[in-house]
Structure formats: C-alpha cells, structure tokens
Amino acid sequence: MGMFRLMYHFFRIGAMNELQYRVNFWIQLLQSGVALAVGLISLALVFSHTTDLAGWSQTELLVVMGVHIMMGGLIGAVIQPNMLRLMEDIREGTLDFALTKPEDAQIMVSVREIRLWRLVDVILGAILLGTALVLLGDAIGPLQAAGFVVATIFGALMIYSFWIMLTSVAFWVVRVDEMLNLFEGIYAAGRWPVGIYPGWLRGLLTFLVPIAFAVTVPAEALTGRLSGATLGLAALLAIGLLGLSRLVWRIGLRQYGGASA
Amino acid sequence: MLDYYWTMARTAIITQFQYRTANYFYMIGMIAEPVIYLVVWSTIATAQGGEVGGFTPGAFAAYYIVWTLVRNMNIVFTPYGWEWRIKRGELSAALLRPIHPLHQDLAYFGGWKLVVIVLWLPIAAILALIFQPTLNPTPLEIGVFAIAIWGAYLIRSMFLWLLGMITFWTTRVSALYELYFAVELLLSGRLVPMSLLPPWARDLALFMPFQWTFGFPIEALVGTLSTTELLTGLAIQVLWILIGLGLVQLVWRAGVRRYGAVGG
Fold it and tell me: Where is the chain membrane-spanning (chain B) (predicted)?
C-alpha cells in the first residue's frame, strides 16, 4: 500500500505545481483540439473512398481513435515525463537523489513527474469514445465494459514496461533522446487497428512495441471482437513484460556510476 | 556571396556528417508516418479492386517512399527556434554581420540537405525492397524532381521564417503554429496525394504554397504529369519563392525595428 500512498503524494504535488500555470490548460486544449480535428478529417478522407477498413466501419474506427487518444494522454501525462526525467538523471548523474530514498527505486522513478494538462487528452478521448459508442447503438454490457477496463490496464502496464526497458538502455548508451521521437512515430500507428498492417509489422506492433494491446485490444472489447484467449494472452504478456522490465532495470542499475561516487 | 554560401554549406556538411548516427535515428523515426499512410491507403486500394483515385498499391508505395526524401527537404529552421534566437541574443550577433541572416539559414540547411540525401539512399532502398513501388520516371521527370525538391526547400524556408518572425511580437505562438502545421499537413499532399482530396479542398489548396513544397515534387517523379504541367509547376514554385521572399523582407524590416525597441 506504500506504493499507492507514494503515488498519491507525488500526484498531489505535481498537480499543485501544474495548477499554477492555468494558461497552459488552454494551450493544451487548443493543441489537442487541432490534433483531434486532423484525426477526424483523416478518418473522413479514408471513408470518402471506402466503406470499411479491414472489417472496421467508420464508427468503430472512432472507438479506436478514442482509445488511442486516451491512452496517448495517459502516456504523455504519467509515463513519458517520468521516463524523460530518468534519462536526464542517468545522463547527469543525479539519479542518486532517487536511489538514496528508502522506497523502491523503480517505483520512485516512475511516479515523480506528472503533466497534469496532458490529461485533457484523456477527457477528449473519453468524450470521443462515448460519442462513438452512442453512434454504434449497441448496448455495452457489463461484461464488455469490464473487458475494456481490464484490457486497458494490461495495455497501460505493457506500455509502461516497454518504456522502462527503453529508458534503461540509457544506462549503457547515454544518449537516448531520439527514442522519444521514435516511440511517438510508432505510437501513431495505433490510430488504426493493427489488423491492417502486413504480418511482420503487426508482429512488431504487438510484441516489440505493445501498441496492439494498448489500443486495438481495448477497442475490440467495446466492439464485440474480443475473445477470452486474447485477453488471457494480454494478461500473460503484461505480467511477463512487467517481470522482464524489472530485470532489465535491475541489471541496468548496476551500470550506474553516479556523480558523487 | 557564392563564396559565403559554399563555406557555410561546407561547414554544415562537415558538422552534420559527424553526427550521422543522430541524423540517422532522426530519419528512421520519421519513417513511421509515411508507412502508416501507405498501409492504410494500400489496404483501401486493394479492397476497392486494385486502385483508388488512380493510385495502385505500387503507386502509393512510390508516392510515400519519395515522400520520405521530400519530407527531409522540407525540414528548415523551426519557427519554435525563434524564441531561443531572440532570447539568447543570437539575433543581435547576426544583425552585426553585413549579410542578411536569411542567407545563413539557407546556406547552412542547404548543406545539411546534401548529407541527408546521401543518408536517405539506403533507407529508400530498404523501403523499396519491402513495399515494391511502381516507379518508371522519364529523364525529364527526374530532372524536374531534382530541381523541385530545392524549390520546395526554398518555399518552406521562406514561410517558416515568416511564421517564426511572429515571435518578434508575441511568444504565445505554439497554438498558432500547430494550426498552421495542421492545415499544411492536410493540404500539401503530405497526408494523402492531392487527387484523393475532395474537389473543394483542392481548390482551396490552389491559393496556398503547401502543395508546391510537398505534393508537386513527389508527383513530378511518380505521377503522370504532362511536360506542360511539370514546367508550369516549376514556374509556380518560383512565384511562391518570390512571394515568400517579398513577405519575409517586409516582416523582417518591421520585426527588426521592434526587436531594437525591446532590446534598447
């Protein structure tokens, strides 16, 4: 339970810090609005030339887009800023400050930062998702809703594990800033269901960068496509990746020299 | 003047060639975007019986592979950099030189482009192996393409300079920039080839410089433009460069006056 208390405190401090800069909320809202408009226009363009994309209708793709924006907001608000700070700390040697705390170091480095305003995307994505579900008109049963929530949690855990491993690379190769670009480029692929990509790319987006599980699978849960087997695989992979990332982090940490040592 | 350009470009080539790994990472990160578009549109083309808007999957592959080079040619000094330029006093130093700072940017980024083109060749080869583009350019098309990518570079340099110079008046510019880049994305041929846009959007794009920096160079190489269209396209590029240059001069003069007033 100590972990949740720690998360809560850091969240509160981070939120209070960000709340000082209210104008940033409007800037974020405008930027998210522009991004949303571009997404909707791309979707409209695609569907002005076809009626379905690999078995998904336009409204179903709105569901995918909603989940994509929500997950993107979550990553941008909580995961990415922490990992960027970790990269910087490793490079500068200031990770000492986190390591000397009595709490578990991996938890410490994962909860220190929050970009509160990026949560605007979570809200926008949720609105889009809700609208799409109303348009679809199918009643969402409690089972589907539960499937969605569980799949989203697994997806988020996998993305987190992926980021921890990616950032741990910084223990060996100090400069990894470009990774952020690379990740954002690849994350954009989740805007579309991974089923449309050719086999090798789908494999990459499923197992190497787990975007399929973070975006497509939760969307599948809401559009009646999710099978128990997929959810089981998601659970297995989430646990596996979490364990693996812990291992990589530990090994990486041994490489860390520190600045004061 | 030519001497200045050559020295500046050479400096850029030497510097950037040293950072080739960083350059490569950057260029590889950029590949995700066109690959996504390519996959989406190829899927549609196949589902529609082999083509959509005159593009087969092979033609889309050619379009989006050439896209990667044109995108790199489109990278110029970022308007976000102006804040740093003004804040750090970089501009004060540039103003002391007897030469317009525009020349410095054009020459430096121009030299950098030469490195980028060399680094791009293996990327293009790999993408071509994976996606099998249909590409049979005539010598004229290759010639026009080789000129048009530099035309694109100049047009985009001018317009991003214009955008960047807004920083002379206000630093709350990020929302405006995002809006500009969104319109550019949609109406330049970067998101989709111009022929897939609805007619009204194509008409709208006629009054903007965007398609001459993106869609035109690509289509010069992969499309079926007639000789007249190719040559007219180059002429329109020249027109937009001149319009951009005129506007840059105008705004620059006003901006520098303003800059002096603030710096005291």
Answer: 21-41, 106-130, 142-163, 175-192, 230-252
Contact of B22 with chain A, judged by CB distance below 8 Å, is answered with yes
| Domain range summary for chain A, segments of one domain joined by + | 2-255
Q: How many residues does chain A have?
A: 261
Comparing alpha-carbon positions, the chain A residue that sits nearest to B38 is A197
pTM: 0.88
Residues 6+ apart with CB under 8 A from A49: B44, B48, B52, B53, B196
To test the contact with chain A by mutation, choose from B44, B51, B177, B204 the residue with the greatest count of A C-beta atoms within 10 A, namely: B44
Residue whose pair of structure tokens reads 């079926």 in the numeric block: B224
Chain A CB within 8 Å of residue B174 CB: yes
Chain A residue closest in CA terms to B40: A196
Per CB-CB distance under 8 Å, the chain A contacts of B179 are 30, 34
Token pair 């099978």 in the structure block, residue: A227
Residue with tokens 């590409």: B135
Could you tell me the residue range of the domain that residue B177 belongs to? 2-263
pLDDT tens sequence for chain A (261 residues) = 678 888 889 889 988 888 888 888 888 898 899 999 999 999 999 999 888 888 889 999 999 999 999 999 999 999 999 999 998 888 888 888 888 888 888 888 898 888 889 999 999 999 999 999 999 887 778 888 899 999 999 999 999 999 999 888 888 876 667 777 788 888 999 999 998 998 888 888 888 889 999 999 999 998 888 888 999 999 999 999 999 999 999 998 888 876 554
Instruction: Quote the ipTM score.
Output: 0.85
> Is residue B26 left, alpha or beta, with left meaning phi > 0 and alpha meaning psi from -120 to 50?
alpha
